UniProtKB/TrEMBL annotation:
Its EC number is 5.1.3.2. It comes from Microbacterium rhizomatis. It comes from the Bacteria. GO terms for molecular function: UDP-glucose 4-epimerase activity. This is UDP-glucose 4-epimerase. InterPro entries: Epimerase_deHydtase, NAD(P)-bd_dom_sf, UDP_G4E. Belongs to the NAD(P)-dependent epimerase/dehydratase family.
């Protein structure tokens, strides 16, 4: 029996694949390579290149590899861009999830770990986000992730009395950073770490968007979590599902205290050895002062923990980026 990782050639998915192998589970990858890289898939791991919008392909893959569960990481993950491309976002994140669940039902696959997002909360007016914090997504991306959770919930209810009832959980997390393997790094043109690295490598000065927020140093505070820890939480959830253990419908993979953008910039300078003073740019519209989540529920059930310091997160990310070359 194996676990299918959708988006397994991407930055997060590739770490999930490695964590599955390390945990004694058998991964299978499906990815259309729209943002992933075939080189991120370890040698020997079955790799199906194609879209999860292709129901026949998904169902055939589930049957051919005797899949017992799915870790659904594939998706269009650019919240800002989703405002300009809502239809594309919904197709990739909502319709694809619906098709995946349809294929799973046809192939009698009843376990799924869904890679959701803290974007489902929007801009909550609380110091610490919990799983019960009201959901108010502020972008099509956040909305699409919340709808994905609803799809899992509704399919779970619909199949509850069947021979193969859907068992599921959704993992909500914020900014994923670092690297657990020097051959895998974040290639997103929108995420803070790769943006800063590319700016520094080009000899330019990184920017901070606003320094007048209501925080200790005036810059935004967010959860920054190491990708290897995120991957371990996915595996723990998969094992809990396959073992028939009780599981919550959703977990926050949060730090509990967060880091400011200025703290990240300071760590970037320390780790890279490139001294710089960030330029201060205007605020971005809609950016809240602070969004930080509690990880207590995930710690209780999934062994969730923040195992890396900010310098560790920057160091592993920087090492992987440099190993990739220019």
């Amino acid at each position: 029996m194996s676990w299918l990782v959708t988006g397994g050639a991407g930055y997060i998915g590739a770490h999930v694949v490695r964590a599955l192998t390390a945990g004694g589970l058998v991964p299978v990858v499906i990815d259309d390579l729209s943002s992933g890289h075939a080189s991120f898939v370890p040698e020997g791991v079955p790799f199906v290149q194609g879209s999860i919008l292709d129901r026949a392909l998904v169902e055939d893959t589930l049957r051919a590899h005797h899949v017992e569960g799915v870790i659904h990481v594939a998706g269009y993950k650019y919240a800002g861009v989703s405002v300009q491309r809502p239809l594309h976002t919904y197709a990739q994140n909502v319709e694809a999830t619906r098709i995946l669940l349809e294929a799973m039902q046809a192939a009698d696959v009843s376990n799924i770990v869904f890679s959701s997002s803290a974007a489902v909360y929007g801009t909550p007016d609380v110091d610490l986000v919990t799983e019960d914090t009201p959901k108010a997504p502020a972008s099509p991306y956040g909305e699409s992730k919340l709808i994905g959770e609803w799809l899992l919930r509704d399919q779970g209810i619909a199949t509850a009395g069947s021979e193969h009832p859907l068992r599921h959980t959704s993992l909500r997390y914020f900014n994923v950073v670092g690297s657990g393997d020097p051959t895998v790094y974040d290639t997103s043109p929108h995420n803070l770490f790769p943006v800063v690295f590319e700016t520094l490598l080009a000899g330019r000065t990184p920017r901070i968007n606003g320094d007048d927020y209501n925080t200790l140093d005036g810059t935004n505070m967010r959860d920054y979590v190491h990708v290897a820890d995120i991957a371990l939480a996915h595996i723990a959830a998969a094992q809990r599902l396959s073992g028939g253990e009780p599981i919550e419908p959703a977990y926050n993979l949060g730090s509990g205290d967060g880091l400011s953008v200025r703290q990240i910039m300071d760590a970037m300078a320390r780790v890279t050895g490139i001294a710089f003073t960030p330029e201060i740019a205007p605020r971005r519209p809609g950016d809240p002062d602070r969004i930080v989540a509690s990880g207590e529920l995930a710690a209780r059930d999934l062994g969730w923990a923040m195992r890396s310091s900010v310098d560790d997160m920057v160091q592993t990310a920087w090492d992987a980026r440099r190993a990739a070359g220019a």
